[in-house]
Amino acid sequence: MARGKTYTILMTCVGGELATQTILCLRASQRHQLRVVGVDASESATGRRFVDAFFVVPRGSEPTYPDRIVEIVREQRVDLLLPTSDEEALALVPHRARLADAGCKLACAETDTVRTLSSKERTYRWLDDHGVATPKWVLAKTLDEVRAAAKELIASRGDVVVKPAENRGGRGAIIVRSDVEGTVRHAYTGSRETHASPQAFIDEILPRYEEFLPAIVMQRLRGVSCDIDLLGWEGRPMRIVPRRRINPVRPYEGNEILDAPELIALGSRLVEVLNLSWLYDCDAMYDDHGKPFVIEINPRPSGSVCMPVVAGIPLLDDLISLARGEAIAEGVHLPAGTVIASYTGLAAAPSMRTERK
Predict the structure, then answer these.
(1) For residue range 159-198, what is the model confidence (pLDDT) as tens digits?
(2) What is the residue range of 10's domain?
(3) Is the pLDDT of residue 16 over 50?
(4) Most buried residue among 48, 69, 264, 340 by CB atoms closer than 10 A?
């Protein structure tokens, strides 16, 4: 137990939808005495009111971002830096040595792994090479290739998904469906997806899709949308937490902790073959036969990582314990069937409640 010595953690993107709840989970730690520093590109980030120190920083894609973060790390004597967006992980990982010189550990995979996970094409090729199940997919570099791949997959697999090969936060995701007419934008509340019939996709959307190339054209899975929290250490699975999304396209609305040995086995294999340390998020879906497939692995924790913590799974405390060289308990119980729902309180801070199904 290391509670006697204050430990400073820097969390990025504290304006995220559930970032405030994650901050509150950190501050409620019974194991560590924590000081939380938050940064965000927006001065009005909600999380700024819940951290011990807040700084406005450039966006992760801007060239001045790493220098500003290193400066804050030195000034605030940060012990652990937790990037919570893909672009920030990509920007910071080349500066791991600079951060270490400042006495700070970066809770992020090595450079090659982060670069692999930041690209759907590289991720899928890597998973295919290592025998990890992915949906049927094709890389298309031109509009003609997108058209041909979509037609072939529609003929052989039914509905298809078209999305940018490089991560763009959901922009450019098209669901091509035979059961809709024309184009339907935002078919699910809060979704950035566009749903379109095959003809509408070919005639209306594809001619304007060049900005999103290269694209992944893949079979559409219709099963349950799940997140798997992956806490690993030097390639050893420490905590694997599967949870089902209440709303398939809005993980922030609520989750149910699952009793799903097949997802735990899948997550454990990912930690082992990727030789992961730290905390990551995997998106998975089942096919019609109940087989789970990896849709995406994010090189940082899930934006809804607070949900399993509220359910009683100490992912954040365990992450910090591992960073501090402390052992963590084995065999933590997964409260399968617990549903965690988010809501907004009067202070505009997201809060959580749990219930048993």
Answers:
(1) 999 999 986 556 789 999 988 888 877 555 455 678 999 9
(2) 6-109
(3) yes
(4) 69
- CA 222 to centroid of chain Cα atoms: 20
Q: Which two tokens stand for residue 241?
A: 């937490």
Answer yes or no: is 233 within a domain. Answer: yes
- Contact criterion met (CB below 8 Å) for 39 and 69: yes
Pair (316, 247) in one structural domain: yes
Q: What is the pLDDT of residue 2?
A: 54
DSSP 296: E
Rounded to whole angstroms, how far apart are CA atoms 229 and 239? 8
Amino acid letter, 177 = R
- 17 or 32, which is more confident? 32
Instruction: Report whether pLDDT(93) > 90.
Output: yes
In contact, 14 and 83? CB cutoff 8 Å = no
- H helices of the chain, in order, are 19-27, 65-76, 86-92, 96-101, 111-117, 120-129, 143-157, 198-200, 261-274, 306-310, 315-323
In which residue are the tokens 């000034």 written? 75
Give the CATH number of the domain where residue 320 resides: 3.30.470.20
Say whether 7 sits in a helix, a strand or coil: strand
pLDDT at 243 over 70: yes
Structural domain count of the chain: 3
CATH assignment of the domain containing 14: 3.40.50.20
pTM higher than 0.85: yes
Nearest residue to 123 via CA among 306, 236, 274: 274
Which tokens go with 123? 């991720």
* 165 and 241 inside one domain: no
User: In this predicted model, what pLDDT tens digit does every residue of 253-262 receive, in sequence order?
Assistant: 889 999 999 9
